[in-house]
Amino acid sequence: MSISIITRAYKTSELKNLINNLNSNNEIEKEIIAVCNIKDYNIENAKLIIEDSNRFQARITGIKNANYDKILLLDSDQIPEKGLLEELDNKNEDMIIIPEKSMNNNFTSKCLDDFRYRVENYAKRYHSPFIPVIPRMYRTSYAKDSINELPTKIYGILSHEDSILYYEIFKKTQNIGFAGKYIYNYDPNFFTLMKKAFLYGKYKKDVKSIDTPDDIKMLIYKLNQNALNIREIGFGKGYIIQILRGIAYELGEILS
Length: 256
Description:
Elements: E1 3-11, H1 16-23, E2 30-38, E3 47-50, H2 55-64, E4 70-73, E5 78-80, H3 84-89, E6 95-97, E7 100-102, H4 107-125, E8 137-139, H5 140-149, H6 161-170, E9 176-178, E10 183-185, H7 190-207, H8 214-226, H9 230-233, H10 238-255
Parallel strand pairs: 1-2, 1-4, 2-3, 6-9, 7-10
Antiparallel strand pairs: 4-8, 5-10, 6-8
Helix pairs in contact: 4-10, 7-10
């Protein structure tokens, strides 16, 4: 088997580290599909699609252009651990949750890693798209069938867009597995993280203008609720960052 690796970024230069890493990885046969708005850097050995699209639309475009049996969804600030692609190639499940870990070693990243560890363990006990953990690998046939059924009016949603994809695929199959290898994240610093949370809060009012199906609205609501489900996840230092992000998010909504 082979894997279609789909990534997205606003500028091609943002993909330099990821593409170089993937091109140096010879574990399995693969194709790399990069969807960007602007080409400001030449990336090699990848199918580049330039289009004026948001994060959700870029993900959908990448899936539509995938040719192999499995797809792996990576963001521009992520790097797969050595051996992950080979592990995924040998998996038989229709979707795989891959644990994530920070490449950084500061307090913010340690808090994020603590929260990731807790919600990933929660997801192992309860397989559900209502938990804020998403599979990064899908069987391509299920992914394509699901995006073909998504109403185009919700392409404007930029919050939890990967969870929406998970939710739609989960309707078709619950055959889910977990990887042992990691995806490593280049986490932003504290101030950038808070700025992103503020902008998501500011964007929330714009989302209300989108004619979103009721079940997608409920999905987003439950995801936000479960992100602070201390009873199931357990309390740890990861909540320090989650609470601060929540405050920044609310400020963005209030001040927008």
